[in-house]
């Protein structure tokens, strides 16, 4: 599951018994060597899809972690890119990574539920962060994304089709979520990380309630399932011009 450069079992146990912020501060130096990082194949496919819709002016990576999404934005934004995260450890690693100097990049430590920005971005992206928010927090998060976009700007993120009930992946994710719920019932502070709490149908409705016009784009790089549905989609939520 992890490369030799990834965290040890002991390190993961310490992180899992911490708060989300402290856990990711500890995980940050080895985060890019874990399955928690969004795969390059997904990042590249999203960049390709966004390039067809761009170019964009300014971009924001919401819950940027070590900055993989910032690298996507740097490919499609001309004027500048910002990465925002509440983990100081993640931001420290992100700052250390070498990046092309073509697009200015800046980093901000802040809670995504209370963004310190005015509506000045043309594109907001997020990768793999929604499991760290309880379902009741997502409407507020989407309102925050809406509030920092210029009219006509877009909030984009990939969504993977849920594994079938008969697949090992389904039971692995169910088991993980169950362990996390037991952990949070018995231990404080809580560590919010649930893979099955993000329900695409409900998410699309909440995006619309937040004021977005929403569309889905299949990412052809990942093909389709047996029923013909895409394995991976890009959600593009656009703030209306008026």
UniProtKB/TrEMBL annotation:
<dbReference type="GO" id="GO:0032259">
    <property type="term" value="P:methylation"/>
</dbReference>
<keyword id="KW-0808">Transferase</keyword>
<dbReference type="GO" id="GO:0008168">
    <property type="term" value="F:methyltransferase activity"/>
</dbReference>
<keyword id="KW-0489">Methyltransferase</keyword>
<protein>
    <submittedName>
        <fullName>Methyltransferase</fullName>
    </submittedName>
</protein>
<dbReference type="InterPro" id="IPR029063">
    <property type="entry name" value="SAM-dependent_MTases_sf"/>
</dbReference>
<dbReference type="Pfam" id="PF13649">
    <property type="entry name" value="Methyltransf_25"/>
</dbReference>
<dbReference type="InterPro" id="IPR041698">
    <property type="entry name" value="Methyltransf_25"/>
</dbReference>
